[in-house]
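Running low. Any example?
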Amino acid sequence: METSLKRDLRSKEEKRAAALADLRPRTTLSFYRYVHLEDPQAFRRRLLSKWNELDCLGRIYVANEGINAQMNVPTSNWTDFDAWVQAQPELKGIPYKLAVEEGELPSFFKLMIKVKDKIVADGLDDESFDVTNTGTYLTAREMNEYVDDPDAVVIDMRNNYESEVGHFVGAITPNVSTFRDELSKTPELLKIHKNKKIALYCTGGIRCEKASAWLKHNGFEDVRHLKGGIIDYARQVEALGLENKFKGKNFVFDERLGERISDEIIATCHLCKKTKADTHYHCQNQICHTLFIGCDDCLKKKDGYCSRKCQLVDKLPTKTKKVVARHYNQLVRKRQKFEKTRLVRV
């Protein structure tokens, strides 16, 4: 066990190269559970030891309140992975959300398991309300009924850069950059709908667990949320032959940056602001690294940069770029309100 828990000292580039060289098919999945962990550090070591052994890659957060995992597993190791996970007392019976589609590149290039204060940053004081008083679940069929019901309200509990590329028909999509902001604004935003039926949805369901309890604490009585989020909705729609009420892409927090749920492209290129596009990229200038939506023509014209300015900065000598980066981080980024993408406000 000691060997498997040694710190991985390889550079980011070396880890990426190793992941790309591993040509085994992988299964991408996510799962979460709110469960009390007495010793999150010990739990982390247990996960790290076994998942290193199984060549798993991903980003996993553990805290006293539970686990939130997005990861991939070599498909050939899936049976062993599943058997081990289901044998852990804290994880027994935990449902997986399997990716709708795998990308051309691996969804993750390294295994990262971190101990956090919370498994989702929500800014709430959990001692101030009953976090277990969550809304009841909605199936995909029931979600479709809510979308069609004029007396129901459907609200997207994700950030603006997520809902920009895909959302349910007629859903309220708050203009927020963080889940923390959404929770602070949603009760006021929904105040005029307080007596209506409310349906929440998010990527895989974890944000809606806390959000539904928070809304009920704020006086909203009829609150439900989509079980398994958009990921499981897509699976149910296909399995049951239901009409797909979700239009566009589902943004995901891994190297794929999105998986297609329907053929519609509902967003527009951030660079030309004309062409329909819904593929996200990070600016090639690491000082900037802004997340943006680009069409094929603009991406080619700007070589993967979000602007000509970034294109020029990235060609500066290394020493000069370090000075620019220091200036940017100290004088610009600190003054900016956090936004995943600063190219547009949606």
Notes: The chain has eleven helices and 14 strands. The mean pLDDT is 92. The chain has three domains: 12-115, 126-248, 280-335.
